[in-house]
Amino acid sequence: MRFQRLDLNLLVALDALLTEKSVSLAAERICLSQSATSSALGRLREYFGDELLVIKGRQMVLTARAEELIEPVRAVLEQIRTTISTVPVFDPATSDRTITIMASDYVTEVLLADTLNAIRARAPNMRFEIQTMSDSPIDRLERGSVDFLVTVDYAISADHPSQILFEDGYVVIGWEGNPALQQPMTRELYFELGHVTARFGKTRVPAFEDWFVRRQKQQRRVEVIAPSFLSLPGLVIGSERIATVHRRLATRIAEYLPIRVQEVPLDIPPIREAIQWHISRNSDPAIRWVVEQTVLAADSGRYQDTSAGNVLPISLAREKSAAPRTTREEFHNLPPAHKPW
User: Fold this and answer.
1) Could you tell me the pLDDT band of residue 5, with boundaries at 50, 70 and 90?
2) pTM here?
3) Is residue 210 part of a domain?
4) For a Cys staple, 162 with which of 206, 249, 276, 291, CB 3.0–4.6 Å?
5) CA 298 to CA 261: how far, in whole Å?
6) Domains in the chain: how many in total?
């Protein structure tokens, strides 16, 4: 079908090309061959009298005309989708939707495992894919590569809807046979011991606790850098090293690993985990339902401090960090690749 000499079928290809800035990725997105997508790009160039995508170095970039087309083309396609397409009624009991979630292994362990178990009871045919955190999670959300992003609220985008799930603090973990942990953790002991921390992705994004402790006047001795939160316990067992981890995670792993948990002798601000989805999916009943189920699971799993078993609370006379509290403004001014998770 043509409108003023433009084949309207090309709008879908144009949207994919403008979003992906790559012929091969656009072809994968719209389920066409690379040659067919390249041909569509040729016809679009002819119609608009502009190259649209040009090679710069090892990648393709948009021309000024192409940049101007991004929002209008997306708006046209969204209007067609919402006004013409028939949206099926969502029934969890019969839905076979596949939902993709980007989250850390910490979030998967303390929240998503319970969430997906609860969802399965009501939606046995729904499928889920959990992807590890990338260096550019917001970009993945905006490209449609994931349906949800679950991360610290500092790292979400103001351009898309979100929901706070839970708040979590930090504790110190170490091997239960570590002689240094037979006494309350003090600031002096904390900086005397060797540490294990996690950093992620190609740019080695630090965990929030790592980023925060680096701001202290006194620096700790990091002996091991791990690729994930769940690898930290195994790297302290059998050693005199310690790790600073989320309280919810420590509480879980202390149930089945020889781990001792103590209060951290620094005033590390708690983190808040949030779930975010693309604004264009805000009216999708399946997306809304999964958000509701995730919020319910977060509410039912709120941590309760029992200070029992191998959890040794710090004394009331513990020393506090003299460092200033982290502000949201300070955090948001960080380059995206340096924002901790």
Assistant:
1) low
2) 0.66
3) yes
4) 276
5) 22
6) 3
Asked whether residue 138 falls in the same domain as residue 121, the answer is: yes
| First-last CA distance in the chain | 47
pLDDT of residue 197: 94
Q: Please, where are the H alpha helices in the chain?
A: 10-20, 23-29, 34-48, 64-83, 105-107, 113-122, 137-142, 187-192, 208-213, 232-236, 247-253, 285-300, 328-332
Look up residue 330 and give its two tokens.
């300070």
- pLDDT-based confidence at residue 171 (cuts at 50, 70, 90): very high
200 with 316, same domain: the answer is yes
Asked whether residue 15 falls in the same domain as residue 112, the answer is: no
Range of the domain at 37: 2-83
Q: Is 206:340 a contact under the CB 8 Å cutoff?
A: yes
Q: What percent of the chain has pLDDT over 70?
A: 84
Within-domain flag for 93: no
Sheet with 127-131, side-by-side order of all strands: 127-131, 98-102, 148-152, 271-276, 162-168
Query: Is residue 288 in some structural domain?
Result: yes
CATH of the domain at 216: 3.40.190.10
Q: What is the CATH number of the domain that holds 21?
A: 1.10.10.10
Bigger pLDDT: 327 or 26?
26
- Domain presence at residue 319: yes
pLDDT greater than 90 at residue 275: yes
Model confidence over 101-111: pLDDT tens digits? Answer: 999 999 999 99
Per-residue pLDDT, 75:
86
